[in-house]
Structure formats: structure tokens, C-alpha cells
């Protein structure tokens, strides 16, 4: 309990939030990296996955990619990238690692979402004279939507976790509060940093769940079904 | 002979490093393996009864799956830090964190495995006079094994990768070599430890696949009957 009251005191002390290494700046850094990298990853992965799913090719790649992604330690990639010449370009290693770990879940889930659309429904849509674009836009995409959103959620959780780990590779972000606390044996700060990171991850996950429901193109039909 | 010079030149690949630090590498690998094995075994020992409980009381499925998903959402660095006041700088801290992560995958896969048991098989066993215990042990468990093993493989592979974060409290196995290598800018140490880590994950995956084949000889005749289902669970839950 001591640690929790200590963490609470840390969190409610205004001075800890201000300045270059304050929690406010770290949070902004964290959100900025995560947001940019997630957007880039979506732009890279989603069109490719949806297209591959539409034409029905490249399944082995899409599925194996996420298995490989799980076997590779995030920390190792972050440290390796930091030691390459890229490490001299400030935040580049973090950004690259974030994209590398966000792409597999996006790609795999979007691809599977497209492939799991009932073939009979697609055939029926073709039979009604829909063009390939109409089939994609009006039939496949709405039916694939839940898995695409699952991929987005998994990727977001991964991105926030990776951005936190970047601190162990000497980069910025909220993880720095935790590693700085470890370096000064300040348990209160470590726990406070962990609470901020945990709360952020859960909040973002919750928001995505809600957003997924609100923007579901099949919302009314699914709920009555 | 240019090999010893690769240490001085700080090359990425250095045979001299592997030779001269063989003991250090072995110790780190051994630590990595035991932390992973203990974590997955404890995870399985908790996940299995939990899955049985959820199956017996479906009302509990929401809370149990919800809580394990929350664990999975919390970034590893934060998870280990939150356990610090409770467990201090110890191997127990790393193992506890890894167990909590493995629960999400294991509980879901055990449940999926049990759900995949055909109702007819259950009925037939009951008709033959099997009690609940014998039904579980001799009928349901073997039939649920492919999906459960898919979960164990997934949990093991991701635990091996996550163990590296234990370097935070100096119990990270190969991860500790990675972070100390970063501090001294020792490229060969970082690359060697990283590669060993990935090799460890691949080896564990293949070993468990072999074990699964050995335990379920009847699936081989049916071809890839269980693989499709396992594959889908794998992707939907953890990506």
C-alpha cells in the first residue's frame, strides 16, 4: 500500500508533470509516436491486405507474418535498431520498430476478415451484376469489418507497449518515467509511471471497442440478427 | 587470423565473442529457458481449472475473459513495474508477469478446445457409464488437445520474447545481455543474444509441435483436421 500512496503523491505533484522530462511531455511524445506510426502502418498494411483478400492470394504470407512477429522480441529489435547508424537519427529506431510490430496484426486480421466472407454471398452479389469494386465496397468490406477492427485493436495495444519499451533502448516516451525511477531506486515513480501507461493502454483499447461498435456498417443488421 | 580483431572492431558478427563468452551465453540461455518453462507451466496450471470453472459456470466467462484481456492490454514494462512493490527485484516478479500474460491465450484456447469436443462423443461416453472425471480425462482432454497445444505453443513463443523485458530487474535471460550490450555499445553481444532468442522461440515451437503429434497420433490420419481451427484462434486473439 505504501507504494500506491507514494505513486499517488507522485501523480498529484504538479512538478512531476512539467518540463522536458515531465509526465506531460512524455505523454505527448508517446501519443504522437503511437498515433503517427499507427496511421502509417494502416496505410501500408490495410490496402495490401484488403486487396490480397479480395483476389484471394498470399494467405500463407499474411498468416505467417503475425506468427513471426510474435517470436521476435520487441526489445531486441529496438536495441538492434538503436545500435545501427539509424540510431543517430533521434527517434527513427522507435518509429521503425513501432511500424514493424503494428503491420503483422493489421495485415493478418484484415486478410482473414476478407477471406472468411461467405463465398456464396460474394457469388450472389456477382450474380446480381455487381462490379468487382461494388462487391468489395458493399459486400466484402462490411462483412470483413469486425476482423479489421480486431487487427486495429491488437496493433494499437502492440504500438503502445512497444513505445513504452523504447525507454529501455534509451528512447523517449512514457517508459522513461519508469526506467528513470528504476535508475534512482524510486519505487513510487516506477509505479506512477506504470499506472499512467496501464491507464493509457486500457483507455485506448476501450475507446477502440466503442468506436468499433459505433462505426460498424452492419450495426443494425447484426443486432437484429 | 582476423577473428580476435572483430571484438576490437566491434563487429556485429563475431565468432571470437561466442567462443570467449560461451559461459555467459549459456548461463543467460539457461535462465531464459527456465523462466519461460516455469511461467508457461504455472500459467497452464491456473488456466486449465479456470477454463473448467468458466465452462461449468458460463456466467463467469465475461469477468474471467475480461480480466485476462486487461492483463494482456497492459504493456510489459508497466506490468513488471506494477509488481515491483509486491515482489521486489526478483525472478518471481518476472515469472508472475509472464504468467499473467500467458493466461489470456491459454484460457481461451483451453475453452476453445473443450468447446470443439463433439457432443456425440460426450453422449457416447456418458452412455457407456463414464463419470465426469473419467469423461474429462479420457474423452474430452484428448479431443481438446490440438487446440490446447496451439495455445501452449503460442503462449510459449510469446513468453520467450517477453522474458527479455525481465532485463529491467536483471532477470531477463538473454534480454539482460541485450540491455547490457546496449550500455557498452557491444554490437556482437546484442546481435548474438537476439538471434539466440529467436532461435529459442523457433526450437520451442517445433518441439511442442512434435510433442503434439506424439500425443495425438489419430489426427495424422485425418490430415490437418485440427489445424484450421487452431490457426483461426491463434490469429483472432493475439495477432
Strand count of chain B: 0
The name CATH uses for the topology of chain A is: MetI-like fold
What count of domains describes the coordinates of chain A?
Answer: 1
* H/E element order of chain A: HHHHHHHHHH
Membrane topology (chain B): Multi-pass membrane protein
Domain ABC transmembrane type-1 (chain B): 29-208
Pfam families (chain B): BPD_transp_1 (PF00528)
Protein name (chain B): ABC transporter permease
Question: What topology emerges from the helices and strands here?
Answer:
The complex is a heterodimer of chains A (225) and B (239).
Chain A: H1 2-12, H2 23-55, H3 59-71, H4 74-83, H5 92-115, H6 119-127, H7 132-165, H8 175-183, H9 187-214, H10 219-224
Helix pairs in contact in A: 1-9, 2-5, 2-7, 3-5, 4-5, 5-7, 6-7, 7-9, 8-9
Chain B: H1 5-8, H2 15-20, H3 22-56, H4 61-73, H5 76-87, H6 91-115, H7 119-127, H8 132-163, H9 174-183, H10 187-215, H11 218-221, H12 227-238
InterPro entries (chain B): ABC_transp_perm/SBD (IPR051204), MetI-like (IPR000515), MetI-like_sf (IPR035906)
Transmembrane segments (chain B): 33-53, 60-80, 86-107, 143-169, 189-211
Main location (chain B): membrane
Amino acid at each position: 500500500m505504501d507504494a500506491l500512496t507514494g505513486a499517488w503523491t507522485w501523480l498529484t505533484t504538479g512538478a512531476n508533470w512539467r518540463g522536458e522530462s515531465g509526465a506531460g511531455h512524455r505523454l505527448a511524445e508517446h501519443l504522437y509516436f503511437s498515433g503517427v506510426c499507427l496511421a502509417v502502418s494502416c496505410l501500408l498494411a490495410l490496402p495490401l491486405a484488403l486487396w490480397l483478400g479480395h483476389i484471394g492470394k498470399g494467405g500463407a504470407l499474411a498468416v505467417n507474418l503475425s506468427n513471426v512477429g510474435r517470436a521476435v522480441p520487441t526489445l531486441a529489435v529496438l536495441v538492434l535498431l538503436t545500435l545501427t547508424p539509424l540510431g543517430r537519427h533521434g527517434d527513427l529506431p522507435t518509429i521503425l520498430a513501432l511500424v514493424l510490430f503494428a503491420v503483422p496484426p493489421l495485415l493478418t486480421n484484415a486478410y482473414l476478415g476478407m477471406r472468411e466472407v461467405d463465398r456464396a454471398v460474394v457469388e450472389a452479389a456477382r450474380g446480381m451484376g455487381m462490379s468487382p469494386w461494388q462487391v468489395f465496397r458493399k459486400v466484402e468490406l462490411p462483412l470483413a469489418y469486425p476482423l479489421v477492427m480486431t487487427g486495429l485493436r491488437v496493433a494499437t495495444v502492440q504500438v503502445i507497449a512497444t513505445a513504452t519499451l523504447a525507454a529501455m533502448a534509451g528512447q523517449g516516451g512514457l517508459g522513461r518515467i519508469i526506467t528513470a525511477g528504476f535508475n534512482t531506486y524510486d519505487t513510487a515513480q516506477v509505479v506512477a509511471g506504470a499506472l499512467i501507461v496501464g491507464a493509457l493502454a486500457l483507455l485506448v483499447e476501450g475507446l477502440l471497442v466503442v468506436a468499433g461498435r459505433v462505426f460498424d456498417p452492419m450495426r443494425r443488421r447484426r443486432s437484429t440478427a | 587470423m582476423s577473428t580476435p580483431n572483430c571484438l576490437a572492431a566491434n563487429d556485429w558478427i563475431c565468432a571470437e565473442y561466442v567462443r570467449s563468452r560461451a559461459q555467459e551465453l549459456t548461463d543467460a540461455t539457461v535462465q531464459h529457458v527456465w523462466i519461460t518453462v516455469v511461467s508457461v507451466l504455472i500459467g497452464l496450471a491456473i488456466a486449465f481449472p479456470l477454463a473448467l470453472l468458466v465452462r461449468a459456470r458460463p456466467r463467469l466467462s465475461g469477468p474471467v475473459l475480461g480480466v485476462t484481456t486487461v492483463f494482456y492490454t497492459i504493456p510489459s514494462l508497466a506490468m513488471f513495474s506494477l509488481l515491483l512493490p509486491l515482489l521486489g527485484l526478483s525472478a518471481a516478479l518476472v515469472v508472475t508477469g509472464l504468467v499473467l500474460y500467458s493466461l489470456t491465450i491459454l484460457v481461451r484456447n483451453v475453452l476453445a478446445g473443450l468447446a470443439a469436443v463433439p457432443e456425440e462423443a460426450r453422449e457416447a461416453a456418458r452412455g457407456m457409464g463414464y463419470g465426469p472425471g473419467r469423461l474429462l480425462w479420457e474423452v474430452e482432454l484428448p479431443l481438446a488437445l490440438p487446440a490446447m497445444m496451439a495455445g501452449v505453443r503460442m503462449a510459449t513463443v510469446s513468453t520467450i520474447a517477453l522474458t527479455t523485458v525481465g532485463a529491467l530487474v536483471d532477470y531477463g535471460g538473454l534480454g539482460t545481455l541485450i540491455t547490457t550490450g546496449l550500455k557498452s555499445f557491444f554490437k556482437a553481444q546484442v546481435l548474438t543474444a537476439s538471434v539466440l532468442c529467436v532461435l529459442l522461440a523457433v526450437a520451442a515451437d517445433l518441439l511442442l509441435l512434435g510433442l503434439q503429434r506424439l500425443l495425438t497420433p489419430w489426427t495424422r490420419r485425418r490430415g490437418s483436421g485440427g489445424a484450421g481451427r487452431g490457426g483461426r484462434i491463434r490469429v483472432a486473439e493475439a495477432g
